[in-house]
TrEMBL record, chain A:
BP GO annotations: pyrimidine nucleotide biosynthetic process
Positions annotated to bind [2Fe-2S] cluster: C241, C246, C249, C257
The protein, known as: NAD(P)H-flavin reductase
Annotated cofactor note: Binds 1 [2Fe-2S] cluster per subunit.
Molecular function per GO: 2 iron, 2 sulfur cluster binding; flavin adenine dinucleotide binding; metal ion binding; oxidoreductase activity
Lineage of origin: Bacteria, Bacillati, Actinomycetota, Actinomycetes, Micromonosporales
TrEMBL record, chain B:
Signal peptide start and end residues: none
Residue span(s) of domain 4Fe-4S ferredoxin-type: 254-286, 335-363
Lineage, uppermost ranks: Bacteria, Bacillati, Actinomycetota, Actinomycetes, Micromonosporales
Name of the protein this chain belongs to: Ferredoxin
Keywords: Iron, Iron-sulfur, Metal-binding
GO molecular function: iron-sulfur cluster binding; metal ion binding
UniProt keyword Nucleus present: no
Top-level taxon in the UniProt lineage: Bacteria
KW Zinc (keyword) present: no
Pfam short name (any one): Fer4_22
InterPro entries assigned: 4Fe4S_Fe-S-bd, 4Fe4S_Fe_S_CS
C-alpha cells in the first residue's frame, strides 16, 4: 500500500548556525547568540526549544532564551559531553540547529491578567522571552512580578536583565546559599510569593526550574488562590528527536517534545506526583 | 467479507506466478521462511522458500518449530521478527556532515535501494504497520527513514487460520481476519486441495491479481475460508481483559502489582525488540579522526534500558518496576492518548520471547482484578 507520503529529510538535518557572541553567565553556563550560516529555521515562540548539535559529539534539547531578528539565543549549562562542547563553542564556530519544537508559553492569553513569572536556576532561560514579551506590551497586563531563585549568588543568570526588568515590574531574587557580601534574601523561591504583590484571583503564572521547585511553587500558588488552569510549567525529559518518534520524552500520556515542554498544571500535577513516571 | 466479485482462487502455480509478477515489477520480496530454528522474515527469491509444512509451538518464554502433517505455508504464528525490521531498520544513518569554509554541508539519509513487497504477513502485523504509520508517518514531523521505505511498499497478507498459544489478536480487534491495510489478502485452504483464496484490497492488488492464473472462487471455497478464519478466532487461547485499558492502566499507576512484575522481569528489553510496534530509537553521533566529518546514526532503543530516561543527574526510571510499568502503560494505555490507537496488536511475541515468560495479557488481567 502506498499509504504514506515520503517525508523530506530536512526535519532531521541540523541547519548550520554560526556562533556570533558567546557570553559566560556563570562558571558552568554560557549564552550563545547564533546566526544562520545557510537556510534559517522558522521563527521560535517563547517556550519552544531547539535541538542543538555539537558536530561529532551529539545533540541536546535547549529552550530558546531570546532572539534578535533571525538570530537565536540559547543559554546552556554544561552538564554532559554535548553541553560542554556547546558551551565551549567560540564565536565563528558552526553548530547545528533543528526546530522549533514543542508548545509555547501563551503569553497573549495572559492579557488583562496579573502575571507571575517564577524561575529556579537555569529555568530563567526559557522564561526570559516571556518577560521580554510582557515588557514589550506592558500596558496589556496587570501587575507583573518576576521571582527568581538560585542556589548561590554567583549562579544568578542575567543580572543586567534583572536590573532592567526591575525598572518596569517587580523583580525579587532569593538564593539558597548566600555567599559573603550577599545582601539579598536567602531561602527558597516559594518564600518570594507573598512579596509578588499580584492578585492571586486574576493571576497567570509561568514556572520553570527543577521539578521539585515547580511542584512546591505551584502548590503554594494554588494555596493562595491562583487558579490551577492558569499555572503553566516547562517540563524536561530526555529527547533524541524533537519530532515525536524517539519515545524518550514520555511523561505518562505526554510526549513532551510535542505536548510540552510547556504544560498546564492540571495536566502535569497528577503525572509529577507519580515517582519514576 | 470474502464474498464478492474479487474473491479469486489460485493454487501453488498461482503463488509462484505472484512471486514472478512482483519480481517483474522490481519488488524485493520479504516473507516468512525457516531460519535459525524459527520462522523469520527474510528476502525471498521463490515461493518455495516459504515455511511449507512448518508450524511453531509457542508459550510464555517458549518457541519451537514443529513439523506439520500437512504442507501449510502460512499456518505458523508470529516468529521473533516482524516487518518492522525492514521499514524501521534497527540502525540507520540520519545524516553525514562535512565541514566547509562557509560552514557545514549535510547530506540526509540515503534513499532506500529496494522497494519491498511484504508477502505472507499476518493481519496482526498488517495492523502493526498501521500503528507505525500513525507514529512515524502521520505526525507533524514524519520520520524520513521510515516513510521512504514505507512509501510504495506492497502488502500481501495471509489470513491467520491457526493461532499460536501466545496469540490474542482477536481480543485486540486486529485479526485473525484481514480487514484492511493490504493490497492482496490470501486465505490458505488445505482440505480438498492446497489452494488460496485471493482478494484485492487496492488498485495495485487488483492489477496484480489480474496477471495471476486465477479462477473465481466458488461459494464453497469462500465458505471454507470464512470457517477457517472464524475457527482461528474461536480457538484463540489468550485474550486481553475487556474494558477500557487506558483507564485501567492510569488508575493503576501506583499499584503494588508493578513490584510483583519487577520481581520476575529481567529488564532485558527482548519484548521491545520483538514487538512489531515498539518504535523507540536513540541516536549516536560519530566522527572521523580528522574531526572534519561527522555522522548521526539512529538505532532501536528500549524503555527497559536505564539510560533510556537519562536526564542530567540520573535516570528518571531507575527501578525495574517503573520501566516495566512504562512499557505496558505505553503499549496498552497512553498510546491511545498519544496516537489515538492501541500500541498492542496481540501478536504475542513479547510473551514467547520473554526469558521469564511474563505474559502481557495476564499482567493486564491482574491489574483488572481478574482471577488468573
Amino acid at each position: 500500500m502506498t499509504a504514506v507520503v515520503t517525508a523530506t529529510a530536512s526535519g532531521v538535518i541540523p541547519r548550520p548556525y554560526r556562533v556570533i557572541h558567546r557570553h559566560e553567565d556563570t562558571a558552568d553556563t554560557v549564552t550563545l547568540e547564533l546566526d544562520r550560516a545557510g537556510e534559517g529555521l522558522p521563527e521560535f515562540g517563547p517556550g519552544q526549544f531547539a535541538m542543538l548539535t555539537a558536530y561529532g559529539i551529539g545533540e541536546v534539547p535547549i529552550s530558546l532564551s531570546g532572539s534578535r531578528g533571525t538570530r537565536l539565543i540559547h543559554t546552556i549549562r554544561a552538564v554532559g559531553a554535548v553541553t560542554r562542547a556547546l558551551c565551549a563553542a567560540a564565536p565563528g564556530e558552526v553548530i547545528g540547529v533543528r526546530g522549533p519544537f514543542g508548545t509555547q508559553w501563551d503569553v497573549g492569553a495572559a492579557a488583562g491578567h496579573d502575571v507571575l513569572v517564577v524561575a529556579g536556576g537555569i529555568g530563567l532561560a526559557p522564561l526570559r522571552p516571556v518577560v521580554e514579551r510582557l515588557l514589550a506590551d506592558r500596558l496589556a497586563y496587570g501587575r507583573v512580578a518576576i521571582l527568581v531563585g538560585a542556589r548561590q549568588p554567583r549562579e544568578l543568570l542575567y543580572p543586567g536583565d534583572l536590573r532592567r526588568w526591575a525598572t518596569h515590574v517587580r523583580v525579587e531574587v532569593i538564593v539558597d546559599r548566600p555567599a559573603p557580601g550577599w545582601r539579598g534574601r536567602s531561602g527558597l523561591v516559594t518564600e518570594l510569593i507573598p512579596l509578588a504583590g499580584v492578585d492571586a484571583g486574576r493571576a497567570v503564572a509561568y514556572l520553570c526550574g527543577p521539578e521539585v521547585m515547580m511542584r512546591a511553587t505551584a502548590r503554594a500558588l494554588l494555596d493562595r488562590g491562583v487558579a490551577a488552569d492558569r499555572v503553566w510549567l516547562s517540563l524536561e525529559r530526555a529527547m533524541r528527536c524533537g519530532a515525536g518518534w524517539c519515545g524518550h520524552c514520555q511523561l505518562g500520556p505526554l510526549l513532551l517534545c510535542r505536548d510540552g515542554p510547556v504544560v498546564g498544571y492540571p495536566v502535569a500535577e497528577p503525572l509529577l506526583n507519580v515517582r519514576e513516571l | 467479507m470474502r464474498t464478492g466479485d474479487t474473491a479469486q482462487l489460485i493454487d501453488m502455480t498461482g503463488l509462484e506466478a505472484l512471486f514472478g509478477a512482483l519480481h517483474e515489477r522490481d519488488y524485493t520480496i520479504v516473507g516468512p521462511t525457516v531460519r535459525d530454528g524459527t520462522v523469520t522474515m527474510a528476502e525471498l527469491e521463490t515461493a518455495a522458500e516459504l515455511p511449507w509444512g512448518w508450524a511453531a509451538d509457542t508459550g510464555p518464554g517458549h518457541y519451537r518449530l514443529r513439523r506439520r502433517d500437512d504442507d501449510a505455508g502460512f499456518a505458523h504464528c508470529a516468529g521473533p521478527q516482524s516487518v518492522k525490521t525492514f521499514l524501521h531498520p534497527p540502525r540507520a544513518r540520519l545524516w553525514s556532515a562535512d565541514r566547509t569554509p562557509d560552514g557545514v554541508t549535510t547530506t540526509g539519509p540515503e534513499p532506500p535501494t529496494k522497494r519491498y513487497a511484504l508477502v505472507g504477513v499476518h493481519p496482526c502485523d498488517v495492523a502493526a504497520l498501521a500503528v507505525l504509520d500513525r507514529v512515524l508517518a502521520h505526525g507533524e514531523h514524519p520520520d524520513p527513514v521510515y516513510t521512504a521505505r514505507r512509501d510504495g511498499t506492497l502488502v500481501v497478507t495471509a489470513e491467520c487460520t491457526e493461532p499460536g498459544e501466545t496469540c490474542f489478536c482477536a481480543s485486540m480487534g486486529t485479526g485473525p481476519a484481514a480487514t484492511g491495510g493490504y493490497d492482496l489478502a490470501l486465505t490458505e485452504l488445505l482440505d480438498g486441495g492446497h489452494r488460496f483464496l485471493v482478494r484485492a484490497g487496492s488498485p495495485a492488488g487488483a492489477d496484480l491479481l489480474e496477471r495471476l492464473p486465477a479462477r473465481p472462487a466458488s461459494p464453497v471455497d469462500v465458505a471454507a475460508a470464512d470457517t477457517a478464519v472464524q475457527q482461528a478466532a474461536a480457538t484463540m487461547p489468550r485474550r486481553m481483559p475487556d474494558g477500557p485499558l487506558p483507564e485501567l492502566i492510569a488508575a493503576n499507576r501506583e499499584s503494588p502489582h508493578w513490584a510483583d512484575v519487577a520481581s520476575r522481569c529481567l529488564t532485558c528489553g527482548n519484548c521491545t525488540m520483538v514487538c512489531p510496534t515498539c518504535f523507540c530509537v536513540s541516536t549516536t553521533d560519530v566522527t572521523d579522526l580528522t574531526g572534519e566529518h561527522a555522522e548521526r546514526w539512529r538505532q532501536w532503543d528500549s524503555c527497559f534500558s536505564v539510560d533510556f530516561s537519562y536526564v542530567h543527574g540520573g535516570p528518571v526510571r531507575a527501578s525495574g518496576a517503573s520501566r516495566y510499568r512504562q512499557w505496558i502503560s505505553h503499549k496498552l494505555g497512553t498510546w491511545h492518548e498519544q496516537f489515538g490507537m492501541s500500541g498492542c496488536v496481540g501478536c504475542g511475541r513479547c510473551i514467547a520471547w520473554c526469558p521469564a515468560g511474563i505474559d502481557i495479557t495476564r499482567e493486564a488481567a491482574a491489574l483488572a482484578g481478574e482471577p488468573s
